[in-house]
Amino acid sequence: MTEQKEKTTIVLFSGDMDKAIAAFIIANGAAAYDHEVTIFFTFWGLNTMRRDEVVKVKKGFLEKAFGWMMPRGAKKLGLSNMHYMGMGPKLIKHVMKKHNALTLPQLIELAQEQGVKLVACTMTMDLLGLQQEELIPGMEYAGVAGYLGDAVDAKVNLFI
Amino acid sequence: MEITKVVDTKGMACPMPIVKVKKALDTLESGQVMEVQSTDKGSLNDFQAWVKQTNHELVKHEEEQGVYKFFVRKK
Which end of chain B is more exposed for a tag (fewer CB within 10 A), N or C? Predict the structure, then answer.
């Protein structure tokens, strides 16, 4: 195809399951609109892309502590509202199943299948002590310039 | 009207219907028509918007006992 595709970019800053679901639904919808879609993960949003198993990497004490305190992957995220010490996410997963809604891991897989570009912010990875090996495969790595390079051409631009 | 493909999205939740439809449409040739079935109450607005933006044609749509049918011609 010779015509230029429309673009959509999303910044996922939050590490809440409900917000991540919203971001991935919009990303998948935009991909179905035949847009080139980029999700840029920064700060707590990076935890969405963490592998759920423990990855052996060399780290200092502070980085290790961050690693223990932060949720390990999409299945472990909490809710932004009605978290109720972990009961909320269980409840949400139950009603999502009832309504045939895709789970967050399924939405992520679908996004990858649809060619959504997943970009991790390297500066905040350093701050939170996350290394590339700890994130799911297929990610790209960039900074603010990389994100803006996509965002200037995008009509849809969200910060979640 | 000849229907080349029928896409059943009954019972599926957002964003699956539109994702399925996009995938199905990619397999069609220009001018071919597909029928989409959906039970999502938002699907009429969704498909009208999607067809407009992607420049395909919504030939007609109908609703029967809670099942929406859309006939889309690929540009």
Answer: N
Chain B neighbors of A22, CB-CB under 8 A? none
Taking CB atoms and an 8 Å limit, are A101 and B14 in contact across chains? Answer: yes
Identify the CATH number of the domain in which residue B26 sits: 3.30.110.40
> Which residue of B8, B10, B16 to mutate against A (max A Cβ within 10 Å)?
B16
What confidence category does residue B41 fall into, taking pLDDT thresholds of 50, 70 and 90?
confident
Edge-to-edge strands of the sheet including B33-38?
A: B3-8, B33-38, B67-73, B57-64
d(CA A95, CA A100): 9
Where in the sequence is the domain holding B41, given as residue range(s)? 3-73
Predicted confidence band at B26 (pLDDT cuts at 50, 70, 90)?
A: very high
Of the residues B3, B6, B14, B67, only one is catalytic, namely B14
Q: Does the annotation count B14 as an active-site position?
A: yes
> What is the 3-state secondary structure of A46-60?
HHHHECCCCCCCCCC
| Residues in chain A where the model's pLDDT stays below 50 | 1
Cβ neighbours of A49 (radius 10 Å): 22
Does the structure's ipTM exceed the value 0.85? Answer: no
For residue B10, give the chain A residue with the closest CA. Answer: A100
- Whole-model pTM: value is 0.91
